[in-house]
Amino acid sequence: MTETNFRTDLDADGILSVVWDMPGRSMNVLSADAIAELAEIARRVAGDAAIKGVVVSSGKKAFSGGADLTMLEGIARLYATEKATRGEEAAAKAVFEESRKLSQLYRFIETSGKPWVAAIDGVCLGGAFELALACHYRIVSNDPSTRVGLPEVKVGLFPGAGGTTRVARMLPPQDALQMLMKGEQIRPDKARAMRLVDEVLPKDQMIGRAKDWIREGGKAVKPWDEKGFKLPGGPVWSKPGFMTFPPANAIYRRETQDNYPAIRAMLQVVFDGLQLPMDLALTVESRHFAKVLRSPEAAAMIRTLFVSMQELNKGARRPKGAGELPLKKVGIVGAGFMGAGVGYVTARAGLEVVLVDRDQDAADKGKEHAQKLISTEVAKGRVSGSERDALLGRITATPDYAALADCDLVIEAVFEDPKVKAEVVAKVEAVLREDAIFASNTSTLPITGLAKASKRPERFVGIHFFSPVDKMLLVELIVGERTGDEALALALDYVRAIKKTPIVVKDSRGFFANRCVIAYMLEGHLMLTEGVPAAMIENVARQAGMPVGPLSLNDEVALDLGLKIIDSTRAQLGDAAVNPAQEKLLRTLVEKEGRLGRKNRKGFYDYPEQGKKSLWPGLADLQETKLDPETLDVAELRNRLLVAQALEAARTVEEGVITDVREADVGAILGFGFAPYTGGPLSWIDAMGAERFVRLASALAEIHGERFRSNALLLDLAAKGETFYGRFGGASEPASAAA
Ligand code: NAD
After folding, report:
1. Quick check: pTM over 0.90?
2. CA within 20 to 30 Å of 591's CA: 327, 352, 397, 608, which one?
């Protein structure tokens, strides 16, 4: 047998070490090859009396990231080809047979009669953790990098290689459902407390202990394969069962608005599976998995949230030929709300930080922010006291610009005022190394204009963070007219170092994300002025898949900021660019009612000191017309909210603001939560077809006006029956779009 992905070694006691170590990859994944090789090993183990047991570990830094999603995409694509040649039924059967192979292999291992132990160091996720769950004993290392989990729901799938069925038999159903629905990566101690793993040990003791467990007669039979097995939470048809499943269904609907077929299927698998013997339960799981794999939601989410995101994270947009630049020390000027956050994430990534503000107090305040955030992490047990001290030791807070002299990159986050920014550019460049890069975190000012204050505009770039910086994963990199490749390359390297996802955007008003967000909020404002009840606007937005309604979102970014944007839009583009109904609403709220948003606890919502926010009752008094909710077309309201954003995204492509369609979709989901089940606004248009989208938008334009008119690009795609991804490339076509 040739060993490519796994190395095996049989010791004197008959214990086979299986070390997973795929060549040419930094991380092990379950590819078709790796699965076939593992299957061969499993058969050898079962058939060779000299082998008493198996210890599976990894030869890499991590155990494994799970299934190769491009392989899953391939299986989904099989459906399309089979359907075309052999019909629907045969196609569905082919996908079922293909997609259950891993589940069957794991069941074979579980019932082989030989004990298998998983020794896990580093991350072990998805299909790899499903392998561990099929093993008879699990030991994880106490290394800070170790995590186990089943994150499949995050890409529109659910654990389909027995993971769902096994977790439901290992944990009480509430805990199982919670774990499966959240898809979290779980730390060793918590995994042990949940009984997902059996032991937590220092990594150098794991293999020895695993072998001991086998030598001491470790049992190769799972509890559910023994007579008299009792489910940890009792039978489904029992009082505790009734207290679990109906509420679980309600929670699913509350959290997902029934937009995620994978999560719905997973609930069904748990509910049905717990009433069936193991093998039948696994078959039910496989049937649902095959169906979910063929869903447009899974195809779109895998493409955007896994394939495209990974490509962008790995530097897909890094200019070819731009060499490596040093990146050890980063200066941040302006230690306010944003600058302090940028300082924290930069120091967290292990880089040296110089935090400069107008005086020592202001600079210290910025550093205090980092102290607060990292202390919370220590309190949660995620970071040790010494790591906290080291992080704070990396941040120098000072009013002295001279401290920036040896920085590789300086990011300014001072007031949004071109004059102040120009002064800062001059002061920084007076001390900065010739080859260092200067970046601005401006949210509205053109980079090309700001770079005019620079002596070296080719080393000037926009790095636009979103707030709160420590939570938001997206960073927009803004390329000004004179920004050079090295500046962009270093900005990309920096974003990679701080583990965020970059999109590269042309210098233009609102860049990408804010343009779409503004369109979303405008729609919410206009609905309100038309007389739609505020609660309905917010609920409809969530039904459409948005994480927060437009009114709530506006409260977060501040209502007076909305008004400022209206003022600057008028100044730059004239009266016609401003919507009078929106302006009147915001002026009344800000100038007459003093309602600025969450920051002063009064916006569209009231924010009491204690308790939950609630919509401000006074909103109804601002509505000149009040529409009867019973008469409103909910689907139309939903469409308005998504179509407005998707049209704006399509415009950014036509205008060359976005040059890579993957970035629009990834940016929209990470930047403002565009309904993730769609895979992003362009994937959404592609999935329904440009022609249908244009018809939908035109119908809205007839009722609500020109803002819903499709641009020339959309009309052209519609006329030619093309898609964004088809025309502009990027990642592969989603599997089921071809179906
Ligand atoms: P802020 O008012 O909280 O912070 C600005 C900081 O800059 C203050 O601490 C101030 O003392 C300091 N400062 C001003 N002039 C300075 C100078 N000459 N030298 C050194 N320090 C100086 O503002 P913020 O919300 O953090 O915004 C900063 C920048 O980030 C702006 O350009 C803004 O458009 C952009 N931005 C903000 C957000 C957001 O959500 N607030 C999001 C993205 C980008």
Report:
1. yes
2. 608
